[in-house]
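Suppose you are handed a protein chain with no further information: no name, no annotation, nothing but its sequence. What can you learn? This example shows the usual starting point.
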Amino acid sequence: MASETDRALARLHLDLAHALYTEREAVGRSVEDLAAAAGLPAERIVMIEEGDTSSLTEVALLCHALQVELRLDADFGFGVIPPRPTVVRLTSGWNEDPAAAATTGFAPSPVQAPPEKRAAFERPPTAAETSPEYARY
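A reasonable first move is to predict its three-dimensional structure. Written in structure tokens, the prediction is:
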């Protein structure tokens, strides 16, 4: 008979597999595309999404390819944390010219943007960010 710990671990594998599948679908990536990005065979991606999440290395490769963080907790729970927006600080102030930003490698930064321009960088929280799992971290 399976112990409570065994059942919790089995549930963790299935929930994690479903979360990875959901993240892949949310960003619109195919199995083949994700496999190429993660350096894994497409058949292995399918196996992982069906519940074979026993390889931490492979799960880490998928998280990296999907650009998400994975947090495990002591109660066999987990949270998939969506990527945070990258903020690039300008060294010489606000640059409104996208062509200049493209040639210099610097992009506009909401930190240094004039107040009337900051709204362009604000976004509502995603569904994942408002979930109870995300709130724990």
